[in-house]
Give the backbone structure.
Amino acid sequence: MEFNKTPIEPAWCPGCGNFAVREAVLKALNDSGLKKRDVAWVSGIGQAAKAPHYIETNFFNGLHGRSLPAATGLKLANPELNVVVESGEGCHYGEGGNHFIAAIRRNINLTVLVHDNQIYGLTKGQASPTTDLGQSTKSTPLGVLNEPFHPLSIAISAGCGFAARGFSGEIAHLAALIVEAIRYPGFALVDILSPCISFNKKATFASYKERAKKLPESYDPSNREAAMVQAAKWDDEIPIGLIYRRDPEDHPSLEMKIAHARGLDKPEVLAGHPPARDRLEAIMKQFVY
Ligand SMILES: Cc1ncc(C[n+]2csc(CCOP(=O)(O)OP(=O)(O)O)c2C)c(N)n1
Ligand SMILES: [Mg+2]
């Protein structure tokens, strides 16, 4: 197998949903036939953001909420890399919320995996952007007063071409979604229901298992209006599967748009080029007083 676990013991509580997400990620990587040198992982800060420490891959561990800017730079410098961004919902939708929307609007070709446990797990139980309205947490003793962030509805509205939801209790189903997301040539989001067993006593494995329902075979993910209906469902039933997929032919990625604007057929690979020192020095001189 090309991709394995690292020997590092995860700093996750026994029973955490993150272990199952890691299984799905490893299955997806091995099923996809990718080589290690073709893949780079970027994460932020949080329990979920530790995920790349525990799989054998190239990775960059950035700041909380700042994984997408680092991933954007990496992808633009080397568009041949498959860049996967993996972090928690606090990191992506809270501190990194504006980067999330900006990256979707750019349609940079990234795979974005969000472990959504509806809580700030690492910092021990404050409300996150997806914590349920009214839920009492360490930072919301009167209950959450803000309308929760609806990641899939927001992503699709902002122009996301691939929006899916998985569940850490359905490893094979989640792995298949991750394979499709990696293959999609544009911004691909997989929001993953994944319980924090220590700090969220409401969003439990049992409650997700009861509510997570696979979309039927007959469901057509290319229908944007139908996708908006499924994306907004968050009640007794939470649909899981590929909710929206836009034909990438009609929706080119940022790298392709840049290439086309410059009259090229495919994105230029900057990585490996020797730096143009004279031009760089001329730019730097402008900032010297
Ligand atoms: C800019 C900044 N704000 C806040 C923090 C503190 N902090 C670290 S992780 C975290 C929340 C993590 O929650 P989430 O991203 O949902 O990941 P989880 O631990 O639940 O997997 C916070 C608030 C920080 N490190 N940097
Ligand atoms: Mg979280």
Q: What stands out?
A: The chain has a mean pLDDT of 97. The longest strand covers residues 238-245.
